[in-house]
What we know:
Elements: H1 2-28
Amino acid sequence: MGFPIARLQIVFSLAVGTVLQAAMGPYQGK
């Protein structure tokens, strides 16, 4: 039961990181 949850957490964290990078990128001037 732990594997699907761990996989979901990894996918979720990757998605959040991508969204945050896309949102913060223009404001950082990079």
